[in-house]
Write a structure and sequence with these properties.
The chain is built from 29 helices and seven strands. The radius of gyration is 41 Å and the shape is elongated. The strands form two sheets. It has a five-stranded parallel beta sheet with strand order 5-4-3-6-7, with helices on both faces. Strands 1-2 form a two-stranded antiparallel ribbon. Helix 19 links the parallel strand 6 and strand 7. Helices cover 71% and strands 4% of the residues. By secondary structure, the protein is mainly alpha-helical. Among the domains are: 94 residues, Arc Repressor Mutant, subunit A; 65 residues, no CATH class; 98 residues; 64 residues, no CATH class; 184 residues.
């Protein structure tokens, strides 16, 4: 085991990257050599002893790279004849990295003391330093960036136990205790640096112009400020910093649609007394508890695409699903199964079922990204082409597993999916100040998320509130207040410490009393005034809700009208196209008819000439050669009879004319691509389209009239709201 805590070592690593990460690791190795007093340095021994001292592992090949850096910094000398590295004790002593770790260790013990004092003063709970250490590390691993999580530790420290450290962090944030937050920030960054070092052991110029980074919904919501930590500027800066180095920040069309669907679904719960936080999304919970109106949500939803592309310069990728024969990577359904398997580790079947749509979208995003990469996996920074960035550590773990199945070397690779902090650490690993700015908001956001009452506690609250309202102990307004008020939610967490077993029947009334104090005391005049005010507000809210419902009706009708107009437009465009094709075919038919008539005329001319020639010959030679005339008169019918016998048809002028007509038309139809059947089909289609257009125009007229009537209704609701608001003044 390490003589230092791993937390202190990670913090020291983070704080010593002013030059570059490789130099920071070199200083750690130099301190290790000083402690163990090596006479000669061997990579195999350093790998073992490094893990023993610092608590995390550096593989053999990265260690050799670190040893080369130690030579460049003067910590080691290399004897080429002996092929060996030898330490320089004087240079190592001057660096004093061990002193830095000792200082970080002291800071960590101070953090443990502050956390312990907080638990005693706030909750009367005493915890040993070992217990405090486990709570901190479990929180960081559950909500931070570590991919290889200590499952034993997480089973020991449950999610409800995260409440205590989350509450501590929230207090530090709200009270301006930057020292504690900065130290934890260093720890998580150092943790990330230790995990991504194998990708970046050799400093290189990162060419980012060909990199496409796709964002998930979690990051998008944070960019738009839909996050309890109120650090949207930090996440916007995160995106801008990526764009500044040439990365193309993207989002899939289905991800945008998922986000819009979540936003639109939230409107149902605004002002709804049946609001249930256990059934709502994180976004819905944010909207309700922060007092968003339906109109504000509508504005966000309608402007989402525009803001993504124009305000944040995030391109929407409307990628079509690839053909089955073009897919050479794991299929979408395989990736979905991997996500479900991962979720089963810490979620129930019901919870997974409730996430079906989200899981489908996430699986599609990962599939698309891997499909774009083909079977290629990045082994170095400059190998990266397409990567999916998420705030969901489970998805990041799935991405790692997916890439692992495709790599040639199992030791060093960059997965197709990475969480936001690890991705930032990877591309900015030589920029500690920038890393700190992007990591701290994530840490605070995790604290606020863990500080929120868990689902089991919310269910108990809702059940008790329903009973209290049924018994008349609280008003519907008070019931709704306890469900959505953020202060009420915070009081619920504090009184129960996010432990459902601490919830008692009196808990809601205790919260209500603290919220209102004298205004909620039984029988007081001030309480009655408050109740009256709440009642009037409720009436106004109900009217406003009716307006919003009417807006929804109008919006639906507008959508119907727009759809009908598009259908009418489509029908007219098709009718125009059909008529144009009919007219073109008619012109071709006229040309063919002209050619056929010319052919028949030629036949008539030939027959007439033959008749004239025959008559002339009969006159000139008939007297002298009367036998020839007789023979011709006899032979010609016989020849005609024989031809008719073998052809199976009677030879007549009409028959010859029809035959020529048919042959000429057949040839010209082929040359000019004319089809009589096609013309008849077009005529039939045109008639059907005309009938359908007539019906659509009738439906459009009715929809327009209905829309006009519904728009008139909303004016009456607005008048009622105005009157109610005047009564409240």
């Amino acid at each position: 085991m390490s003589s230092f805590s791993s937390v202190a070592c990670y913090a020291a690593l983070s704080s010593c990257t002013q030059k570059d990460i490789l130099s920071a690791y070199a200083r750690m190795v130099a301190a290790l050599v000083q402690k163990n007093k090596y006479q000669k340095c061997e990579a195999e021994r350093l790998v073992i002893d490094f893990e023993a001292l610092y608590g995390f592992k550096v593989p053999y090949h990265p260690m050799r790279t670190i040893m080369d850096q130690c030579v460049r910094l003067g910590f080691f000398t290399y004897n080429s004849a002996a092929h060996s590295f030898f330490p320089d004790p004087r240079m190592i002593a001057e660096d004093n990295f061990a002193g830095i770790i000792n200082a970080k260790e002291s800071n960590y013990k101070k953090l443990l003391g502050q956390f312990g004092d907080f638990l005693i003063s706030k909750h009367g709970i005493y915890s040993s330093p070992e217990d405090l250490d486990e709570r901190i590390r479990a929180f960081i691993e559950r909500f931070g960036i570590k991919s290889k999580i200590d499952r034993t530790l997480l089973r020991k420290i449950t999610e409800k136990d995260d409440y205590f450290f989350a509450e501590f962090l929230v207090c530090c944030e709200e009270n301006g205790n930057s020292e504690t937050l900065n130290y934890l920030n260093e720890y998580t960054i150092g943790l990330a640096l230790s995990e991504i070092f194998t990708y970046c052991e050799t400093p290189e110029t990162f060419t980012a112009k060909n990199v496409h980074a796709y964002l998930d919904t979690g990051l998008l919501f944070k960019i738009f400020g839909i996050d309890s930590s109120n650090h949207e500027n930090s996440y916007i800066q995160y995106i801008q910093n990526m764009q500044r180095i040439g990365i193309r920040v993207m989002v899939y069309e289905h991800t945008v649609n998922e986000m819009i669907g979540i936003i639109e679904g939230s409107k149902h719960w605004i002002g709804n007394p049946d609001f249930d936080a256990t059934l709502s999304s994180e976004a819905t919970y944010f909207f309700v508890t922060n007092g968003w109106s339906v109109g504000e949500i509508d504005e966000l939803s309608s402007s989402l695409r525009y803001r993504l592309e124009d305000e944040f310069n995030i391109k929407i990728d409307d990628m079509s699903y690839p053909k089955h024969e073009d897919i050479h990577t794991p299929h979408e359904e395989d990736i979905r199964a991997m996500i479900v398997e991962r979720y089963k580790e810490n979620r129930s079947e019901n919870e997974i079922d409730a996430l079906t749509y989200t899981i489908d979208r996430d699986a599609l995003s990962i599939f698309y990204t891997q499909h774009k990469n083909g079977n290629n996996v990045a082994y170095r920074l400059n190998d990266i082409r397409n990567v999916f960035i998420t705030t969901n550590n489970s998805l990041a773990a799935v991405g790692y597993k997916l890439s692992y199945s495709l790599v040639q070397s199992k030791d060093v690779f960059i997965p197709v999916v990475m969480n936001d902090i690890k991705w930032g650490t990877l591309i900015w690993f030589n920029s500690p100040a920038l890393l700190s700015s992007i990591n701290r908001p994530r840490l605070v956001s995790a604290a606020y998320a863990a500080f929120r009452p868990n689902d089991e506690l919310i269910r108990k609250l809702n059940e008790r509130l329903s009973q209290l309202e049924k018994d008349g102990a609280i008003t519907p307004e008070q019931c709704y207040l306890l469900k959505v008020n953020p202060v009420a939610q915070q009081l619920l967490s504090q009184k129960t410490m996010n432990d459902p077993t601490r919830f008692i029947d009196a808990t809601p009334l205790e919260i209500l009393k603290e919220l209102g104090k004298e205004s909620f005391e039984m029988g007081s005049a001030s309480r009655q005034a408050e109740v009256d005010s709440l009642t009037k507000q409720s009436e106004a809210d109900k009217l406003q809700l009716e307006i919003e419902k009417q807006k929804a009706v109008i919006s639906g009708l507008e959508g119907q009208v727009q759809l009908l107009r598009e259908k009418v437009k489509t029908k007219k465009e098709r009718m125009t196209a059909v008529k144009k094709e009919k007219d073109e075919l008619l012109l071709v038919k006229a040309e063919i008819d002209c050619i056929v008539r010319s052919g028949i005329l030629t036949l008539n001319v030939i027959i007439s000439l033959l008749a004239i020639v025959t008559c002339v010959l009969a006159v000139l030679f008939g007297a002298k050669y009367d036998w020839a005339i007789g023979l011709a008169t006899f032979v010609a019918p016989i020849l005609a009879w024989l031809v008719a016998l073998w052809c199976g048809r009677k030879i007549t002028y009409e028959g010859v004319r029809k035959w020529i007509d048919s042959k000429v038309r057949e040839k010209q139809n082929s040359i000019r691509r004319y089809s009589e059947g096609r013309y008849i089909a077009l005529e039939s289609e045109y008639a059907i389209l005309a009938d359908e257009l007539k019906k659509l125009e009738e439906q459009l007229g009715k929809a327009d009239r209905c829309l006009s009537e519904e728009k008139q209704k909303i004016d009456r609701f607005s008048i009622d709201v105005s009157l109610t608001e005047k009564a409240m003044v």
